[in-house]
Design a protein that fits this description.
By secondary structure, this protein is an alpha/beta fold. The protein has 11 helices and 7 strands. Strand 1 (17-21), helix 2 (25-40) and strand 2 (45-49) form a beta-alpha-beta unit. It starts with a helix and ends with a helix. The structure holds manganese (II) ion.
């Protein structure tokens, strides 16, 4: 069922692609790394979906089961686990979607053990990787996936030169992902533009601006000046004076 050549030589994959990522800090990074790798292989990525509907295993039997994939010959899902306690319904839903969409190639990559079917459909590549660092399609880079590893609390894979900066970026990214005004397309755009200076600056704000419960900002927080400025700006166009930092 695994088609190794498909994931080793990305240029052979069909286009355009839909990339779906987990709705948390490392999920954004895994999706962005995947998008960049596909683009580098000249595969068009026409949509990246990260939303509250991709926040846990319910995605597989929920949004995913109801989506139409006609526009996408390639669908890549990264960092969305099956239900840990009962993975069968998640897998059953994935298999059903693959069978109902025979002209779409599905690639699913996660760093939690995935329940692998004995005889999966030919249009499904299901890959379980050991490290968060590898939880993307194509080659991981330190720039994105070392930060993803830190966000997930995993082992930091990076040179000492990068490590400190990666830690800051990871903290900033977590803070941004916890904010309901920034989570989703806005955060995706910041990453696409590699606005690391924003995440580094956000990490510098006092912790009392950024208390969270289950990864979401709590209402009694002091407002974060940087998140407020970003929410008020159009798109992601923050002036360098707001950022106050080099790239
Ligand atoms: Mn995740």
């Amino acid at each position: 069922m695994q088609v190794p050549s498909l994931v080793h030589d990305l240029t052979k994959l069909p286009s355009p692609a839909l990339v779906i990522g987990h709705f948390d800090s490392d999920g954004y990074l895994a999706a962005e790394q995947t998008r960049r790798n596909l683009r580098a292989a000249r595969i068009k990525v026409s949509e990246v979906l990260i939303s509250s509907e991709t926040s846990n295993y319910r995605f597989w039997t929920g949004r995913f089961a109801k989506m139409s994939f006609g526009k996408f010959p390639l669908v890549v899902v990264v960092d969305i686990a099956f239900n840990f306690k009962n993975p069968k319904p998640s897998l059953a839903s994935l298999l059903k979607v693959c069978r109902n969409n025979p002209s779409t190639q599905f690639v699913v990559i996660d760093h939690h053990p995935l329940l692998l079917p004995k005889n999966g459909p030919a249009n499904l590549t299901l890959r379980s990787v050991e490290r968060v660092y590898d939880c993307c399609l194509g080659e991981p880079s330190d720039e994105f996936m070392a930060v993803a590893s830190i966000c997930d609390g995993g082992i930091v894979v990076s040179s000492p030169r990068w490590r400190k900066r990666h830690l800051k970026r990871a903290q900033g990214l977590k803070r941004a992902a916890a904010d309901k005004n920034i989570a989703g397309p806005r955060l995706q755009a910041l990453l696409r533009q590699r606005r690391w200076s924003f995440f580094e600056a956000l990490a510098e704000e006092p912790p009392e601006f950024h208390r969270t419960v289950r990864g979401r900002r709590i209402a009694t927080n002091f407002p974060s000046p940087l998140l407020a400025a970003l929410a008020m700006s159009s798109g992601t166009a923050l002036s360098t004076s707001v950022l106050g930092l080099r790239r």
